[in-house]
Specification:
CATH class: Alpha Beta
Domain Flavoprotein: 34-190
Biased composition (Basic and acidic residues): 1-13
Protein name: Putative phosphopantothenoylcysteine decarboxylase
Keywords: Coenzyme A biosynthesis
Organism: Lachnellula occidentalis
Strand order of the largest sheet: 3-2-1-4-5
Radius of gyration: 17 Å
CATH architecture: 3-Layer(aba) Sandwich
Number of helices: 6
């Protein structure tokens, strides 16, 4: 996760933390906010993510975690004012974390440790994938789980039965905004 280190905990406060503490859903369970997991896959429409985040920043009781696939991050590398660096998105109000594919398995896993895609699923009240590229659409419909975003989708509790009654078990929605060129959209494989 992209996260600035805090001066009181780090002697080099201007550096990005290379290994932040693992994200846990339970540490945010009772924060009184709605939890939006916003994800972008590799479509040129990814350049609209800053606009989406700014529009959502006006809602004080909203917490946003952002997932960017590797290809989505390529559209936000500081190429222009419209395409700011990924790190700068963290400064937008309500953006409480940014996760990239490489954040999934930072260290070798051992029993008892959390798994990022499961923790993100537990945390989120809704998942919005905007933009949803043709490639990620194909992966999701094929059941692939080869990056952080597709792993979250594959582990999503679509019926509200995984967490169970009394543990917050509710059906949680996935909202998608497909974004691809007309030829890809009209292709028989997409239908």
């Amino acid at each position: 996760m992209l996260q600035m280190t805090h001066p009181e905990h780090d002697e080099h406060p201007t550096q990005m933390s290379s290994t932040p503490p693992p994200f846990t859903a339970s540490s945010h369970a009772f924060d009184g906010k709605k939890h939006l997991l916003l994800a972008a896959s590799g479509s040129v429409a990814t350049i609209k993510i800053p606009n989406i985040l700014h529009a959502l920043s006006t809602h004080p009781h909203l917490s946003i975690l952002l997932i960017l696939t590797r290809s989505a991050a390529n559209f936000l590398a500081g190429q222009s004012a419209e395409q700011p660096p990924v790190e700068s998105l963290r400064q937008i109000p309500n953006v409480d974390g940014i996760f990239l594919d490489e954040d999934e398995w930072v260290h070798p896993w051992t029993r008892g440790q959390g798994i990022l895609h499961i923790e993100l699923r537990r945390w989120a009240h809704v998942l919005v994938i905007a933009p949803l590229s043709a490639n990620t659409l194909a992966k999701i419909t094929g059941g692939f789980a080869d990056n952080l975003l597709t792993s979250v989708v594959r582990a999503w509790d679509t019926e509200g039965v995984i967490e169970g009654p009394g543990l917050g078990g509710k059906r949680r929605r996935i909202v998608v905004a497909p974004a691809m060129n007309t030829a890809m959209w009209r292709h028989p494989v997409t239908r």
